[in-house]
Amino acid sequence: MKKVSHSQDIARILLGTFLTFAGTSHLTFARDDFQAQVPDWVPLDKDLTVLLSGGVEISLGLALMVLARKRKYTGLAAAAFFAMVFPGNISQCTHHRDAFGLDTDKKRFERLFFSLYSSHGHCTVREYGIKKPKLKNNRL
């Protein structure tokens, strides 16, 4: 296993804590706000979608905190999760749905960029040992 820095361990634990808290909020006090993010094309009931995604988020958070030796896989799973829920952020923006204090189109639009930026940070090439493709003459 590749040696990680103390700051990388702290970041992993903080992300795990955040995901566990966010997942818990799906199941409790922020349930209505999360339902506002579920796109209309999702074939499940909005409440069921929020409950299921909350369970996944709690599981990912706990895995990130507890399974340090599996950080490559838990990190990739977290990155995949963020990619799968991103359409919800787009849906909230395009349907002008107020939730989480995002009560203007400008705030909802700015959140899209924050979501993209933060998702990229959860799965970096160096952290998870994914090899960059070798380029020959700037081509794959």
Secondary-structure map with pairings?
Layout: H1 6-27, H2 31-35, H3 46-66, H4 71-94, H5 105-122, H6 125-128
Describe the structure.
By secondary structure, the protein is an all-alpha fold. 67% of the residues lie in helices and 0% in strands. It has helices spanning 6-27, 31-35, 46-66, 71-94, 105-122, 125-128. The model is unreliable at 121-128 (pLDDT under 50).
Label this structure with key terms.
mainly alpha; 140 residues; single chain
Main beta sheet: none
The N- and C-terminal alpha carbons lie at a distance of 28 Å
Topology, number of strands = 0
The SSE string, one letter per element, is HHHHHH
Q: Rg from C-alpha positions?
A: 17 Å
Q: Give the overall silhouette.
A: globular
**Percent of residues in helical segments?**
55-70%
Average predicted confidence as pLDDT? 81
Strand content: under 5%
State the low-pLDDT regions, or none. Answer: 121-128
Secondary structure class reads mainly alpha
Distinct helical segment count = 6
Outline of the structure:
This protein is mainly alpha-helical and 140 residues long.
